Amino acid sequence: MTITRTGHSYIDTESGKTLDAWFPLALTTPTRSCLAEKHGLIRSQLIEITITSLDDAPTSTEEAYLRLHLLSERSVLPNHINLDGIFGLLPIVAWTSAGPVLPAKIDALRTAVAADWHHLTVPSVDRFPRMSDYIVPAGVRIADADRVRLGAHLASGTTVMHEGFVNFNAGTLGESMVEGRVTPGVVVGKNSDIGAGASIMGTLSGGGKSKNAIGERSLLGANAGIGISLGDDCIVEAGLYVTAGTKVRTPDGQIVAARDLSGHNKLLFRRNSQTGAVEVLPTKGNQWGGLNSSLHVND
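The structure corresponding to this sequence follows.
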């Protein structure tokens, strides 16, 4: 499948380095302006980028940005697109209230925009910008936009609360509550809840390649974590971190590594408050009560 899109890029005037690229879904000619361009620190240009195969690795900053757009606009699913080498293609940029500039240009920009009665703020210095500065997918609520990177995939009905974080090439596949961290390569199934402070090991954790996921109607409790996948109708109790090597006692008394239970449905992982042992028990569907449906109607 060949994809061709027209976009708009900002370029550092002095070095000629591309800082970002924006590919709106609308068929109209993309237009942007900012104070950094007005004062000559950056320039802009229209671009046309063609991707002949999403299985091939990106080869330019502009193409890397298009792939991140495809994820955030929900044209492709996480883990279904080649992003190899993306860190080397995305420069570190100061994302400022007056436009993107190289970090070394922050002071020059601050001085320049003072004439415009503009007080410069710098929300982040990073390779990835906020998703919401480029794409706001329909049916999504994000309490703190700084915590969702471009390249996140958020299904309609997703609510990301203030402490929730969704990285690139990761996200949700249906109505979900995200109050914890969804790291690269991780997908969360419909009607699942990532509790406050919870974490899921992704493909960048220690350079791992294992792709963990959470199925449908599952709960990762507050301050819990997993280094395995959860199937449907699963629960990990609050505060319990289950890594692949965690020794787990089964109902029949066997001791197994948690990796042997990865992806299985209807399991409750808990720590025995008397012995300290990690145990797994069978659950009934929606034992934890499920999502509050009224919180995820985001139209």
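The first strand starts at residue 3 and ends at 12.
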